[in-house]
Amino acid sequence: MVPAGDNGGSEASSEVRSYTTIPRPFEGVFERRHFSAATPNLAAIVATNPRQDEEGREMLIDITERASTRLKEIMIKDSNPSLALRVTVESGGCHGFQYLMSLTNMSAVSPEEDTVFEASNGSGAKVVMDGPSLELLKGSTVDFTMELIGSQFKIVGNPAATSSCGCGTSFDIKP
C-alpha cells in the first residue's frame, strides 16, 4: 500500500502526507523503559563521622543497588553482619592514584579517622572511607560490576578524576 499523496517517489511533493496506521492489539499495554548497564544510585546515609569539605558542604558518596545487594550477600554468606567495604586511595597506579578495596569488620573502623556510609535501602551495606580518601572520592558512586574477566566493586563517576585507566582502578585528579 502506498501512503496517501505519494506518487511512488518519482517527484518531490510539498503536500502533507498521511499514513494509515494499523491498530495494534497490545498498544498501550507496555510502557517504554530506558535500559542501562548501570543500576540506580542510592544516596548513602552517613552513619558515623560526617565530614565537610573546605566550602562547608557535606562530603557524600552514592552506593548502587547492585553494590548494596552484593555486600549484603557477602554479609549473609560469611554470617557476619559487621562486614563493610573499605575504600582507600593511595598514590600509584598508571594514572597517579589507585583505588584499593577490601572487606573489613566494623570493629576495625576508627570513629575519629573513618567515615561510615550506609546504603539507604535498608540492606545494612556499609562503605568505610578515611578522610583523605573521602576528599578525593566525594560525589563518587560505589558500584559492583560483573564482566567476563571477573566481578568487582568499582568507583564510578568520580568528579575529581580527569582520566582513568582502562580497568578503572587508577585515576588522575584535577589540579
What does this structure look like?
There is one protein chain. The chain is mainly beta. It is 11% helix and 34% strand. It contains two helices and eleven strands. The protein has helices at 65-77, 131-137; strands at residues 41-43, 45-48, 62-64, 83-91, 97-105, 114-118, 126-130, 141-147, 150-156, 161-164, 170-173. The strands form two sheets. A seven-stranded mixed β-sheet has the order 2-6-7-4-5-11-10, with helices on one face. The longest helix is centred in the middle third of the chain and has 13 residues, at 65-77. It is globular, with a radius of gyration of 25 Å. It starts with 40 loop residues before the first strand and ends with a strand.
List keywords for this structure.
mainly beta; seven-stranded mixed beta sheet; 11 strands; 11% helix
Task: State the gist of this model.
The protein is mainly β and 175 residues long.
Sequence stretches where pLDDT stays below 50 over 5 or more residues: 1-23, 28-36
Secondary-structure-derived class = mainly beta
Shape: globular
Specify the biggest β-sheet: 7 strands, mixed
